[in-house]
Amino acid sequence: MLGQDIKVYVADTKFFYPDVMEVCEDENGDAYYTDKPILVVEVLSSSTQRKDRTIKCLAYQTLASLQEYVLIEQDFVEVEVC
Is there a domain that residue 30 lies in? Predict the structure, then answer.
């Protein structure tokens, strides 16, 4: 599992910092980003919720390696797996 120090690269030169991600194989050799996460987890807040559910969700769907995108509410008990 990787924390917030590593970025995820998606198409159109977009980079995101997920709250947590898991990467099994990454052959790009870069210590600062990956383009092959299998799991991305975002903890939702009122200020990030809209971007996490729309922009990031659509961008992450372009990653062939991604198996699950998990959204966790911080203010109440709810977990959404995409």
Answer: yes
